[in-house]
């Protein structure tokens, strides 16, 4: 990954590398990764994802540098493990974890996600092609196959600690977890990282599509894309500042600023941060957006008027033996945040909740971690989200549900990287979550939503 205002991932984060060296000649590096995810237990209420066993295989290549230029490529293959996932769940009792797959039936499917050329020297850098764009509003947590973008980026580092960049993104491809961003996290609200159902006719996952269709639906007009400008400064002691502006033609302009300070305090580090996000409509905005009634209620008028404020404070123990943090976010404005391109900078985002992007939400969170022994770390976190004014969807209950209460999420995570097996990471987590649409009653059918989860899964990753 290049260190730049708009970072670009050239292969896969976390994968090991194998140097291709023959008779002293450098032919680049290969990396590969195998990952499997399995749901162990879940509630039988039809809302908590109860069935899902999936894998992905990644293979990547990075060429040697030729006068600062490199060629990079990465491909992914994803599918169901031995046909063990139930893709015909019982209504209101079971739910398929669709966000683990690129295909509706879990069939094996692959994609060449990354094909690009990069350039970097002491003062200049650039990127052209397809890959991941690591910036606040184009990056979030992925599980098996990441989102990918077609982009051109140029940047400069004229003085030490100062970084400026300008980029244009014209296309996006939905990865596996985009289905979760839309459904289970976003709850059909358009605020979780996807504003359209990725699997719908005319779109689809693992396909590079114009940003107009990614944002507004398969029948939307093409747009020139999203222009991203960034300025970052790391010349202050222990402090980094960043400013990004995202202009999406005829839809939205989003401005994001953050400051991060890690201040030595005896053998500890004081970790402080602040963030601000602003979004306004441009041209017709989101007028004419396609989708379910909740999307129409949230963004059908075309107007975008959203602010997000955030603070975080924490302590990092000696050698990161332990950490403890508190986070806070507050949103206001006349609309929610139109989150169409996979962004997630909010401090109070958790494994399955991103409610800070909804309209008029006060949220807070606490997170702590402890290294039990070398290679074994435990993480516990709790988040509370005030009731929003954003409509959402509850499967088999209503496509236009109103919030009924505050939302919350408890995360318990155990990560083990055994020294005996280099490249192996085992991760298990338990999540207890209550949606703000829990107990919503469909007035026509009389059906009441049970939008709660008690969920345990296992993730195994081997990089080689």
From TrEMBL:
<protein>
    <recommendedName>
        <fullName>Outer membrane porin, OprD family</fullName>
    </recommendedName>
</protein>
<dbReference type="InterPro" id="IPR023614">
    <property type="entry name" value="Porin_dom_sf"/>
</dbReference>
<dbReference type="GO" id="GO:0015288">
    <property type="term" value="F:porin activity"/>
</dbReference>
<keyword id="KW-0813">Transport</keyword>
<feature type="signal peptide">
    <location>
        <begin position="1"/>
        <end position="17"/>
    </location>
</feature>
<comment type="similarity">
    <text>Belongs to the outer membrane porin (Opr) (TC 1.B.25) family.</text>
</comment>
<keyword id="KW-0732">Signal</keyword>
<dbReference type="Pfam" id="PF03573">
    <property type="entry name" value="OprD"/>
</dbReference>
<dbReference type="InterPro" id="IPR005318">
    <property type="entry name" value="OM_porin_bac"/>
</dbReference>
<dbReference type="GO" id="GO:0016020">
    <property type="term" value="C:membrane"/>
</dbReference>
